[in-house]
């Protein structure tokens, strides 16, 4: 199954569950407060997911390692390499 | 010396593929670092330079390096014109005599010091692939501004959500592969550019290959021009959606 198919399957299962409960197709008598929560639930979930995504990306950008040491070490090694290669007869 | 003798006797040989396009300044430096790294760690190796007719004379420098280090260590497999990275790997691999292949950029973004870590990791878990990662552990980048970090992290997040690939760095190209595994993957991969690296991991998962990860520091190129530019975000998204719909 492709990832797209997995997503479609999961979304349609959730969607069907929502429709069933929301329009009371099974004749379950859900208490009114629960019914009121159910109606906008997809929008809530979307908003929660959006916030989670933004927070995660923001956190990861903020904590992205800056490898200052690696850059400095590389600069030193570049000079060392150039000296050594020149000795070995490389014409740059 | 005894330790390095043992490593040579283990029979493993590592072929490093270096695709180059206008890397005249970087090539000698990366080769020097590679040679030193392998000499110090004692693993058996060869370096295969695949130059695509660089107008800056990269091939001429590569020939000088071959004279210095020997034609058993530096192999030149040039092509007449710029044919792209994906086919450069295929071309280089055809001439590789190692049972492991290491793919890295020649622009000094990928430091050879991580190769012994890749090898250790591979042996530890007997992995089919070991991938360098900028996104986890002590991994990181140098020389990226906020915008580039944001795009990179954002793209990575979307990819993780859509593809759940089981590896943290999909667009990186510093990896170690078993040769037969790389061969099978390359046959199956159709995309180009960044997406090519991503597809390799996705296909590897499909084929149930195991993937280990080693955190790496990625230092942005010091010399030379960046070649992948312009509408790379658009082509990345297209490639991502294609993989999403087809794998
Ligand atoms: N043989 C060959 N090598 C290439 C080609 N395009 C890029 N390369 C090499 O592939 C490696 C990665 O390319 P880069 O231009 O560094 O791509 P990048 O790392 O995504 O981008 P920058 O580092 O920002 O330039 C480098 O060693 C290039 O010289 C090509 O068409 N043929
Ligand atoms: Mg680069």
From TrEMBL, chain A:
- Statement: the UniProt record of this protein carries the keyword Zinc-finger: no
Q: In which pathway does it act?
A: Protein modification; protein glycosylation
Q: Name one GO molecular function term.
A: glycosyltransferase activity
Coiled coil regions in record: 64-91
Question: Any idea which UniProt keywords this protein has?
Answer: Coiled coil, Endoplasmic reticulum, Glycosyltransferase, Membrane, Transferase, Transmembrane, Transmembrane helix
User: What membrane topology does the UniProt entry give?
Assistant: Multi-pass membrane protein
Q: Does the record carry Acetylation as a key word?
A: no
Q: How does it assemble?
A: Component of the dolichol-phosphate mannose (DPM) synthase complex.
Name under which the protein is recorded: Dolichol-phosphate mannosyltransferase subunit 3
From TrEMBL, chain B:
Cofactor list: Mg(2+); Ca(2+); Mn(2+)
Fill in the subunit field for this protein.
Component of the dolichol-phosphate mannose (DPM) synthase complex.
Q: What is the scientific name of the source organism?
A: Xenopus tropicalis
* Name of the protein this chain belongs to: Dolichol-phosphate mannosyltransferase subunit 1
Q: Which UniProt keywords apply?
A: Endoplasmic reticulum, Glycosyltransferase, Magnesium, Manganese, Metal-binding, Transferase
| Pfam families reported for this sequence | Glycos_transf_2
Recorded coiled-coil stretches: none
* Class of enzymatic activity (EC top level): transferase
Entry's SUPFAM superfamilies?
A: Nucleotide-diphospho-sugar transferases
Coarse class of the protein's main subcellular location? endoplasmic reticulum
Per the record, the similarity remark reads: Belongs to the glycosyltransferase 2 family.
Tell me where it resides.
Answer: Endoplasmic reticulum
What does it do? Transfers mannose from GDP-mannose to dolichol monophosphate to form dolichol phosphate mannose (Dol-P-Man) which is the mannosyl donor in pathways leading to N-glycosylation, glycosyl phosphatidylinositol membrane anchoring, and O-mannosylation of proteins; catalytic subunit of the dolichol-phosphate mannose (DPM) synthase complex.
Asked if Nuclease is a keyword of the record, the answer is: no
Provide a Gene Ontology MF annotation, just one. dolichyl-phosphate beta-D-mannosyltransferase activity
Q: What's the domain of life for this entry?
A: Eukaryota
Instruction: Name the Enzyme Commission number(s) assigned to this protein.
Output: 2.4.1.83
- Would the keyword Nucleotide-binding turn up in this protein's UniProt record? no
């Amino acid at each position: 199954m492709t990832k797209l198919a997995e997503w479609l399957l999961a979304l349609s299962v959730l969607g069907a569950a929502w429709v069933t409960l929301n329009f009371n197709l099974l004749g379950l008598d859900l208490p009114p407060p629960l019914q009121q929560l159910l109606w906008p639930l997809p929008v809530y979930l979307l908003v929660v997911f959006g916030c989670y995504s933004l927070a995660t990306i923001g956190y990861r950008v903020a904590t992205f390692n800056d490898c200052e040491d690696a850059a400095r070490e590389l600069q030193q090694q570049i000079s060392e390499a150039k000296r050594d290669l020149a000795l070995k007869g490389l014409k740059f | 010396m005894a330790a390095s003798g043992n490593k040579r006797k283990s029979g493993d040989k590592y072929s490093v593929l270096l695709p180059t396009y206008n890397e005249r300044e970087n090539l000698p430096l990366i080769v020097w670092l590679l040679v030193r790294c392998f000499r110090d760690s004692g693993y058996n190796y060869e370096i295969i330079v695949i130059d695509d007719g660089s107008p800056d004379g990269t091939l001429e420098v590569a020939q000088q390096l071959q004279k210095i280090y020997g034609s058993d260590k530096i192999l030149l497999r040039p092509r007449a014109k710029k044919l792209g990275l994906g086919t450069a790997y295929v071309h280089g691999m055809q001439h590789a005599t190692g049972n492991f292949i290491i793919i890295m950029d020649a622009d000094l973004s990928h430091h050879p010091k991580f190769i012994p870590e890749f090898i250790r990791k591979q042996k530890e878990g007997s992995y089919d692939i070991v991938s360098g990662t900028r996104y986890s552990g002590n991994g990181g980048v140098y020389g990226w501004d906020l915008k580039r970090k944001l795009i990179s992290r954002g793209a990575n997040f979307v990819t993780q959500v859509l593809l759940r690939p089981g590896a943290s760095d999909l667009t990186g190209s510093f990896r170690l592969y078993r040769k037969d595994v790389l061969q099978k993957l390359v046959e199956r991969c159709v995309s180009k550019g960044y997406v090519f690296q991503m597809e390799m991991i996705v296909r590897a998962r499909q084929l149930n290959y195991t993937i280990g990860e080693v955190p790496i520091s990625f230092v942005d190129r010091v010399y030379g021009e960046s070649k992948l530019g312009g509408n790379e975000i658009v082509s990345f998204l297209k490639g991502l959606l294609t993989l999403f719909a087809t794998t």
